[in-house]
Please model this.
Amino acid sequence: MTHRFRDLLALEPLSAAELSFLLEQSRPFQEIQRHPLKKLATLRGKTVALAFFENSTRTRISFGAAAARLGADTMNLQAEASSVKKGESLLDTVHTLDAMKPDCLVMRHAASGAPEFVARHLEIPVVNAGDGTHEHPSQGLLDALTIRDRKGRIENLNVTILGDIQHSRVARSNIHLLGKFGCRFTLCGPAMWVPQELEKIGPPGAVIRRTARIDEALDGADVIIVLRVQSERLHEPALPLDDYVLLYQLNAERLRRARKDAIVLHPGPMNRGIEISPEVADGPQSCVLEQVTNGIAVRMAILYLLIGTPAEEAPQTTASSGEQTPAKARESTHASD
Ligand code: NCD
Model:
């Protein structure tokens, strides 16, 4: 029997209500990040397999920390030093991992659609930790959580996304999520990184405009999402780095074009001095480190919803408040499909 959150592969297919549900479920886990003792026993006895076929620092550590703080064990596949390098196929690798009986698989892969492909072949839930240029659902959720905390809402905001949007799974997950809450998007970067087809990627009715002029893009922005210049995904940079800095770097002077209370997000890793100036990265409008903290909360919620069982202990904050626990909410919300 399958349920709505059997896997978490993308935000695009999720409704605003489902996305709100996921964000709500992250709240008690945000609380836990502030406690001196952060470890729960909620997923004691469970095992989370982490298979990162593409390099990752924060996402891999964040999922690992999320599992550990829920009391789960982890199994780590290090693609660089594994049989993948000896020519093993993706399916053979994940079937081998699966045979070690983890309860779910968190995977990152350079090929768009790889987690979905794997999910079709495994019984256990699969979580997409970033696939090619397709989606990065946990990043989209942690960004939304960060925006909601700082701005008090995620509805009807002017969101400017700067940089290499064409190759960004983060931008896509952001647009799929925030677009369902009425946010309007301005995409800005060199023309080859912001092709016209991006205007169509949002949910029906989403307002997405493009501009190559950063000043115009920042006018009236509530939220600015700065993307990394992904040299590893490009054979040719869109333009020389020096020119990129000159034309597109978010610096303090440019930031003044945005609304006074605008916030700045960056999924990391940042190329300081390239897409973002140190002054902005470390300034009061920057949410970069809050994003990292919220990442653990969101990933705890994801793991909890996918492999927690209703009989198990719920996080104190919800259990003691008499509200519906995440586990119970899961039973009622995740009808069979
Ligand atoms: C992003 C990714 O890998 O998609 N980073 C991340 O997960 N925090 C963005 C990037 O690599 O530029």
